[in-house]
Design goal:
The protein is an alpha/beta fold. The chain has a single domain, classed as Nucleoside Triphosphate Pyrophosphohydrolase. The chain is 28% helix and 28% strand. It is built from five helices and seven strands; from the N terminus they run αβββαβββααβα. The protein has a five-stranded mixed β-sheet, sandwiched between helices. A two-stranded antiparallel sheet has the order 2-6.
Length: 159
């Protein structure tokens, strides 16, 4: 097998990246997609070959209409393939980066095609807004923001 053929045969993963954006009062910006029943952090799937930090910057800018700095990695999570996507489903890697603080939502311009709403949520509110599979990585990212140490979220991989 040639090296290019071998490389093409390797399994792939879906990469997503999101930004943790605070308000300075220990609340986190969440957005409400119009195609899902739950809220999430601003972010999304990275394009083919796009670095996670670049995907985060692009997705945050597209979703909230603001170019924010993408700072350090806060959390990373691996998820197994989801059965709803069939036999060709791939596992996914989810990155969360520190995207700083917004004093208010005044400058936010939501991507109308995908988002219905946004708000700042406290850590205790996140459990009722985020899906159970996402919550551990967001809480880990918030903890990493305080501790200065990025977190791998293995418990989310088994959820």
């Amino acid at each position: 097998m040639t090296e290019p053929d071998w490389h093409a045969s390797l399994p792939g993963v879906v990469v997503s990246a999101a930004g943790l954006i605070g308000d300075g009062a220990r609340r986190v910006l969440v957005v409400k997609p119009n195609y899902r029943d739950y809220w999430t952090l601003p972010g999304g799937v990275c394009e083919f070959g796009e670095a996670p930090q670049d995907g985060c910057a692009r997705e945050v800018a597209e979703e909230i209409g603001m170019a924010l700095p993408v700072r350090r990695l806060l959390a990373i999570d691996w998820r197994p393939p989801l059965p709803i996507y069939g036999s060709g489903a791939r596992p996914s890697l989810h990155f969360i980066f520190d995207c700083g603080v917004l004093a208010s939502l005044a400058g936010v311009r939501l991507q109308a095609e995908e988002l219905d709403d946004c708000r700042f949520a406290t850590e205790s509110e996140l459990a009722s807004l985020l899906p159970a599979t996402t919550l551990p990585r967001v809480l880990a990212a918030a903890a990493a923001l305080s501790s200065g140490c990025a977190r791998y979220v293995p418990e989310a991989a088994s959820g």
